[in-house]
Amino acid sequence: MKTVYTDKKTITAKSIFTAVAPFASIGILLVIWLSASNVNSELVPTPLMAFDRFLLLFTKPISNMTLFGHIWASLRRVFLALLISFALGIPFGVMIGWNKTLNAIFGTLFELIRPIPPIAWLPIVIMWFGIDELPKVIIVFIGTFMPVVINSYTGIKMVQSLHLDVARMFNANERQLLLEVAVPAAMPAIFAGVRNATSGGWMVVLAAEMIGAKAGMGFLITRGMEFFDVPLIMVGMLVIGVIGAILAVITDYIERWACPWNKKLELD
After folding, report:
1. Distance from C-alpha of 165 to C-alpha of 126, rounded to nearest angstrom
2. Of 116, 118, 97, the residue nearest 106 (C-alpha)
3. Residue 265's Cα: distance from chain center in Å?
4. CA separation, residue 254 to residues 6, 32, 57, 150, 265 (Å)
5. What is the pLDDT of residue 77?
6. CA separation for the pair 203, 207 (Å, rounded)
7. How far apart are CA 3 and CA 22, in angstroms?
8. CA distance to 91, 151, 155, 189, per residue, from 96 (Å)
9. Four-residue CA torsion sign, 137, 139, 141, 143
10. CB 210 within 8 A of CB 139
11. pLDDT surpasses 60 at 267
12. Which residue among 66, 205, 207, 227 is least enclosed by CB atoms within 10 Å?
């Protein structure tokens, strides 16, 4: 009985620590923030100054948009690019991972393009397509397409040959092997690519919006830099972090729903 009680006590202590740790880390961040703002409030505004600037974005819109308008402008670009990336990247990654001929044709070409950072494409995309909406979506597409393809390809390659052999014993054809065995087994890896693409797209769109944009979170940060509005920059950074965390939670729940057989998700 004493051992059981000790185990329960240990589990309770771990649960309490897990629940308290996030709030403690936020508290530490606030203490560091306040300490830095006391040294130079012009370069590091206080949390109260940032909150006041946050409220001001709703009463005095920038570029005729409130904060929510700028958030939606960025999210709209990301969602459109992600939709195209998923529609093209997942089938492409699956096929080059499954078919040796397609891998021989396209795999080398993809490996040559893959190491190029999305931001490196920015100058040439602007020269080709201007500074309207299309180049921003293209840049985000480039940044989200790569992780989707890589993880889809890796997921298919990691499918255990034993599973395929068992399916062949039951006279499964190539289509059934791919769609009913390989793809479901690769779904956790594919969703890892979806998560990486979502977070990566959110980062890339901010960089794309810093050049020639009239709306979006990247535009807000650039506006704050141009007018030395440091509280606006801080608000933009905090909102970017919050939106990124929300997107991560949403993709995690979608993965849990789409891959209920992945026991690792239940243990995390």
Report:
1. 50
2. 97
3. 18
4. 37, 35, 32, 20, 11
5. 93
6. 7
7. 30
8. 9, 12, 11, 15
9. negative
10. no
11. no
12. 227
Report CA Rg, the chain: 23
Per-residue model confidence (pLDDT) at position 90 = 93
Tens of pLDDT, residues 106-129: 888 888 888 888 888 888 888 898
Pair 223, 62: CB distance under 8 Å: yes
Binned at pLDDT 50, 70 and 90, residue 92 comes out as very high
The residues, any chain, with a CB within 8 Å of residue 141's CB and separated by 6 or more, are 81, 84, 85
Cβ contact 197:85 at 8 Å: yes
188's tokens: 């956790």
Displacement of CA 135 from its chain's centroid (Å): 20
81 and 141 Cβ atoms separated by less than 8 Å:
yes
**In the structure encoding, which two tokens stand for residue 127, read together?**
């020269």
Residue type at 23 in one-letter notation: F
Q: Judge contact between 70 and 62, C-beta under 8 A.
A: yes
pLDDT tens, residue by residue, 16-43: 777 777 777 788 888 888 888 888 878 8
Cα–Cα dist 101/243, whole Å: 41
